[in-house]
Amino acid sequence: MKKLIAEFIGTLWLVLGGCGSAVLAAAYPELGIGFAGVALAFGLTVLTMAYAIGHISGCHLNPAVSIGLWVGGRFDKKELLPYIGAQVLGGIAGAGILFLIVSGKAGFELGGFAANGYGEHSPGGYNMLAALVSEIVMTFMFLVIILGATHPKAPKGFAGIAIGLGLTLIHLISIPVTNTSVNPARSTSQALFVGDWALGQLWLFWVAPIVGAILAGIVYKVISPEKE
After folding, report:
1. CA-based angle 134:73:156, to the nearest 5?
2. For 75-104, what is the mean pLDDT?
3. DSSP state of 18
4. pLDDT digits (tens, 9 = 90+) for 35-88
5. What is the SS3 assignment for 182?
6. Which of 26, 81, 156, 182 qualifies as a cystine partner to 139, CB 3.0-4.6 A?
7. Does residue 96 sit in helix, strand or coil?
């Protein structure tokens, strides 16, 4: 239960910090943080939680990460579904808090609410194939970073920095394509509030990250320097 509470809080923080920066600060007149600021915000949420709850739950904050770690031999299968449930609920809670904040402004309009999308709902107008490839590859690389940074032969104490900066880089690359998911819980939380097209396209942001994570788990077991 302690692990699940930690995953709930961590995923809440990821959605509130990352999506909150996109909704509240990205396009703020003259002082907005833009894509680079949003990318850094997502990275910082993971970096801070890695040191806050990593010793409790492993700081997955992401169903794809939990699945990838399981495939890579780093996570117990019996904990997989409870972790995913806690992550999805934490993401929804984070999105709910963000909604309460943004709806407190006069003339409030929900807009895209940092939801993930493709086609006309992609920030750069990228089609479904581009979104699929982007999400698979970016999640694959994210899991390779996680599996490598947390390996027993990796330098101790720096995993959170590598993982946080890795997620920042992933967002710098792919925000224009899909608003960057690589995390089904993060996508679900925003889609539930947007509804309509966001729920219709949500399937891609479950399938692609999970495929990327599974591939990374398989590949890293092959290239890993030794059995753990």
Report:
1. 85
2. 96
3. I
4. 999 999 999 999 999 999 999 999 999 999 999 999 998 999 999 999 999 999
5. coil
6. 182
7. helix
Q: What does the block give as tokens for 119?
A: 């086609």
Q: Which two tokens stand for residue 102?
A: 């943004």
Type of residue numbered 16: L
From first CA to last CA, the distance across the chain in angstroms is 26
Conformation bin of residue 125: beta by default, left when phi > 0, alpha when psi is -120 to 50: left
Distance from C-alpha of 163 to C-alpha of 48, rounded to nearest angstrom: 11
Task: Give the C-alpha separation, 129 to 226, whole Å.
Answer: 36
User: Do 177 and 134 contact (CB within 8 A), yes or no?
Assistant: yes
What pLDDT band is residue 214 in, cutting at 50, 70 and 90? very high
Q: How many helices (H) and strands (E) does the chain have?
A: 10, 0
User: 56: how many CB neighbours lie within 10 A of its CB?
Assistant: 14
CATH number corresponding to 2-223: 1.20.1080.10
Query: pTM of whole model > 0.90?
Result: yes
140: its two tokens = 């694959």
Q: Are 91 and 14 in contact (CB under 8 A)?
A: yes
For the chain, domain boundaries: 2-223
